[in-house]
């Protein structure tokens, strides 16, 4: 297969453009369920810094979801708003956006865009030196993770062509909305939602007027015109789309020049990911390679437009009826935020540890009254003065937020007690959380549940620990269980 040098700027859809999918037509991979995306995504708003600080637990390193961690130039955090909505919060430096008003205006303009193939922007914040963007949260990692750093199985062919199609849809919509410039399109910019569907990050549509850096990747993957002029043009986005196609084809990050040499030498099989063997028709692979070659032309005018991309990748979708999470082998968990019935449940949902501590203090040990393994503290503390003193010192340390000492006293108490106390386990669990030991906190919260099987507090503390461990789906399940038992308890009281 030779390198394709034909001029393609004038090439729109090779078929009738009216036959192409767009954001207003049923999506062939959506199983016929067309949803008005605008109704699901909240309107763009300005958030207060305190609100976003609380949502990210004080911009905790535990909440960082950037693949490069703290080393990322602009760190992205997972967050949970007071409304229970999970969000991604991108934190810029003031140097990137010295003019707060300009930042807000740019973000608000981008926030008007809504599309099912974008990670939609839902807010921003510009207070003091902080410049923050808030977007929808995508729980299933980036294309980079699934292509280059997969754990269980490589991304299957059908999912790869679906990524190519969905991202072409996103780019075509951006082009229609006159957002023709996308900065540094790469495998890190493609993220997967809870259904396993890929989305294009809206962060790449944000202009950065201060430093002008539009490409942070290796120069080998940068559009030639950017190297020559330092400017990004709409055709630069097509070039970058071509590099993403190479990633999808090869499962590796191959420099375009090397890939084009293989294509010119008709060594296409050397380009293909060996793990895909038997998953695709050679004609389909050839068509995707040809499209990549067109996109990677050195002269911008020789590259196709977004309509051409869509027309080229649409026929490659062969398993449109199969859901993305099935293709990827992901378990699909729909997150349903419960209506919390108690202040403790609400505090755990907000990750408001100060409020949790206050509530545990006020509740004391009264929830253990009437438990099946009931043994009052009056009874067991009369056995020995040392046990009484240990409990007393543990409670004082817990009250005074000396959580390290509380752990020590409660650990001694657990050994002394002939009958376990759910409240002691709960208090030690919270102390472990405050001491940065989430796994031990989870263990103790589970022990509290063993003591009182339907105790909402035990489930809420497990939810806190699981959230700290980054296990949001499991944490949500625990919140739901806690709310269920809370409802059951309230109904029994009413009865």
Automatic annotation (TrEMBL):
This is non-specific serine/threonine protein kinase. Its main location: membrane. The keyword Kinase applies. It comes from Quercus lobata (Valley oak). Keywords: ATP-binding, Brassinosteroid signaling pathway, Cell membrane, Kinase, Lipoprotein, Membrane, Myristate, Nucleotide-binding, Serine/threonine-protein kinase, Transferase. GO terms for molecular function: ATP binding; protein serine/threonine kinase activity. Residues 1-35 are annotated as: Disordered. It catalyses: L-threonyl-[protein] + ATP = O-phospho-L-threonyl-[protein] + ADP + H(+); L-seryl-[protein] + ATP = O-phospho-L-seryl-[protein] + ADP + H(+).
């Amino acid at each position: 297969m030779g390198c394709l040098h034909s001029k393609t700027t004038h090439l729109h859809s090779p078929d009738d453009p009216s036959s192409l999918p767009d954001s207003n037509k049923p999506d062939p991979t959506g199983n016929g369920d067309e949803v008005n995306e605008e109704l699901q995504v909240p309107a763009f708003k300005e958030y207060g810094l305190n609100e976003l600080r609380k949502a990210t637990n004080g911009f905790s390193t535990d909440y960082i979801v950037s693949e490069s961690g703290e080393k990322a130039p602009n760190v992205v955090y997972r967050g949970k708003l007071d409304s229970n909505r999970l969000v991604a919060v991108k934190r810029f430096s003031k140097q990137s956006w010295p003019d707060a008003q300009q930042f807000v205006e740019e973000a608000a303009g981008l926030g008007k865009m809504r599309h099912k193939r974008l990670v939609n922007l839902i807010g921003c914040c510009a207070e003091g030196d902080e410049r923050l963007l808030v977007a929808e949260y995508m729980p299933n990692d980036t294309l980079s993770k699934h292509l280059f750093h997969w754990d269980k199985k490589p991304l299957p062919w059908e999912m790869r062509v679906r990524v190519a199609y969905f991202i072409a849809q996103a780019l075509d919509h951006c082009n229609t909305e006159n957002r023709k410039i996308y900065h540094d399109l790469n495998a890190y910019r493609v993220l997967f939602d809870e259904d396993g569907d890929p989305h294009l990050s809206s962060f790449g549509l944000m202009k950065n007027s201060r430093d002008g850096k539009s490409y942070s990747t290796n120069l080998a993957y940068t559009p030639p015109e950017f190297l020559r002029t330092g400017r990004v043009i709409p055709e630069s986005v097509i070039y970058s789309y071509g590099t993403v196609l190479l990633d999808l084809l090869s499962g590796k990050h191959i420099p375009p020049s090397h890939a084009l040499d293989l294509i010119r030498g008709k060594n296409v099989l050397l380009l293909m990911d060996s793990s895909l063997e038997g998953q695709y028709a050679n004609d389909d692979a050839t068509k995707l390679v040809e499209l990549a070659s067109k996109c990677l032309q050195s002269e911008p005018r020789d590259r196709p437009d977004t309509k051409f991309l869509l027309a080229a990748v649409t026929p490659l979708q062969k398993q449109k009826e199969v859901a993305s999470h099935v293709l990827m082998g992901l378990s699909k968990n729909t997150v349903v935020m419960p209506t919390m019935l108690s202040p403790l449940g609400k505090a755990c949902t907000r990750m408001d540890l100060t409020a949790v501590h206050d509530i545990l203090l006020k509740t004391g040990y009264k929830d253990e009254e009437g438990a099946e393994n009931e043994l009052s503290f009056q009874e067991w503390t009369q056995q020995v003065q040392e046990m009484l003193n240990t409990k007393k010192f543990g409670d004082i340390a817990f009250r005074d937020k000396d959580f390290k000492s509380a752990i020590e006293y409660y650990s001694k108490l657990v050994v002394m007690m002939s009958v376990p106390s759910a409240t002691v386990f709960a208090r030690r669990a919270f102390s472990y959380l405050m001491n940065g030991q989430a796994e031990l906190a989870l263990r103790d919260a589970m022990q509290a549940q063993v003591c009182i099987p339907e105790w909402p507090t035990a489930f809420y503390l497990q939810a806190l620990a699981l959230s700290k461990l980054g296990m949001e789906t499991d944490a949500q399940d625990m919140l739901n269980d806690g709310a269920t038992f809370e409802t059951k308890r309230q109904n029994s009281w009413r009865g």
